[in-house]
Amino acid sequence: MTTKTPEEKRLAVRRRLRDDFKFYASTSLKIRTKDGEVVNLKLNEAQQRLIDMIEAQYAAEGKVRIIILKARQMGLSTAVGGWMYYWVSQRKAQKALVVTHHADSSKALFDMTRRFFDNSPPGLKPSTKYSSRRELKFDTLDSGYAVATAGGDSVARGDTVTVAHLSELAFWPKSSAKDILNGILQAVPTRKNTAIFVESTANGVSGEFADLWAGAVDGTNGFIPVFLPWYIQDEYREPTPEGFERTLDEQKLAEAHGLDDEQLMFRRRKIAHSGVDLFKQEYPSTAEEAFLTTGRPVFNSEQINDLLRIAPLPVEQRGLIADDYQIDPRGELLVYADVSPSETYYIGADVAMGVRGGDSSVAQVLDSHKRQVAVWRGLVHPDHFATVLERLGYRYNTAKIAVESNNHGILTCTRLGKDLAYPNFYQEVVYDKIDDKETVNLGFRTTSKSKPLVIDQLRASIRDGEMTLNDKTTLKELLTYIVTDTGSMEAESGCHDDCVVALALANHTHEGVFTPIVSSDDYYIASI
User: Domain range spanning residue 250?
Assistant: First the structure.
């Protein structure tokens, strides 16, 4: 066995400090505890899970892009801050930027990093050029660390940042959050040895954090979603009193997540203090329950989330080309089931103006079993949307089409029902008591009376399991469709309800689910 020299041992330790964050943290990072003591950073369960995800992504991709949905006070800002200091203080030409939602938070995170620096072992402490209340500059390494407050500072303008920590993004000022976020994302090059960490508790179902999280879950934006539930935190438990008994809800939670009585007692105390909704937002058990609407959800959130988890991908995507829906990877029609020649189909449509940045026009296609077999969603002028619907209707066996006739829908209804003379178009008969005559109106007019009717019908169909929903965008809109304080039913602020309205109209005009008879040639024949 070859005995290492003291110099070889020193170099081996130094390499480990450079390459092994957990070792570096336990030996070289000092934190201040809630008891006021300054001690080495010993990673808790949540912090260890996060670091494992960071290291796994870095090993696979050579860079880090992580978004963290967390419960309160799990020490994740500390873990990210420690990793950033470890990275920047040992490598050349690195620029770290931390952006928080509030000046006090910016100061707290900078003070934490300053503590890392002040308590670094002599061999690991980098030489500094200068230090201020918001910046550390390491002159020999040509690296640095700075903090800023979203909405209060000029953030990342003209800078090249290699490591960024965006803290409590859900609470950044709504008026400027998007611009600041986009600026920072542009400031970090899309190359190896860069890192972006976004972490926050949830704050509603809309906004930059909710959108970034949704994109990470869908795998479309390059970020890895990391959700860490409250119950993995050892300190989140309370002694149980004598005679403690679980409620039915607590028993279900215990079975779903392996909770013990002391954890349930902690949850019970927090709920007694602030209510169950705020507990779910700040101490979520699942990612879905963290994103609460500001109003009362119209549809059952748990049921919709269950459907979201099993929602399939479209079997194909088609676009309207030369008056026919042809395979097109960028087409607006998402298809979830093939057309059956013996099926009866129903289409509900919501019409928008068709301008970029506005609402989309949507058509929902249901079959005779209320299975969602296709969804058309896109930006198109109301006049051309009539052609979209006509071609869609004929594709689905001359489906019955109901179009909302309010506002922009008037043009779509007129062209579809009169100019194109579509034969199976929904019409309303209105009786005028004064003139004693009936008037036939094209399409479905949404009023203060008709809207609750069709929405309640849709809610009942979904609740009772009559409807099979496949489209993720539709399901997400159902989650954010709420009853406001004034009693109106509409999309959560910053969200859309085009898919909901179109689905409600398709359901309203549906003639009811029936049991088919399967003939010898495997075609469905409607039973009488």
Answer: 236-292
Per-residue pLDDT at 488: 87
Q: Give the N- to C-terminal CA distance of the chain in Å, as an integer.
A: 88
- Token pair 């960024």 is found at 164
pLDDT band at 379 (very low <50, low <70, confident <90, very high): very high
- Identify whether residues 200 and 244 lie together within a single domain: no
- Distance of alpha carbon 515 from alpha carbon 507, whole angstroms: 17
Retrieve residue 22's tokens. Answer: 């957990």
The tally of domains found in the chain comes to 3
Q: Do 141 and 171 fall into the same domain?
A: yes
Half-sphere CA count of 486, side-chain side, radius 13 A = 4
Q: What is the DSSP letter of 360?
A: P
Place of tokens 């990793």: 83
Whether residue 382 is found in the same domain as residue 450: yes
Q: Can you give the CATH number for the domain in which 25 is found?
A: 3.40.50.300
Q: ∠ CA(100), CA(106), CA(111), 5° rounding? A: 145
DSSP 8-class letter at 231: G
Encode pLDDT of 347-377 as tens digits: 999 999 877 767 899 999 999 999 999 999 9
Where does the pLDDT of residue 423 fall: very low under 50, low under 70, confident under 90, or very high at 90 and above?
A: very high
Q: How confident is the model at residue 431 (pLDDT cuts 50, 70, 90)?
A: low
Closest by Cα among 64, 61, 70, 102 to 86: 64
Q: Is the pTM here over 0.85, yes or no?
A: no
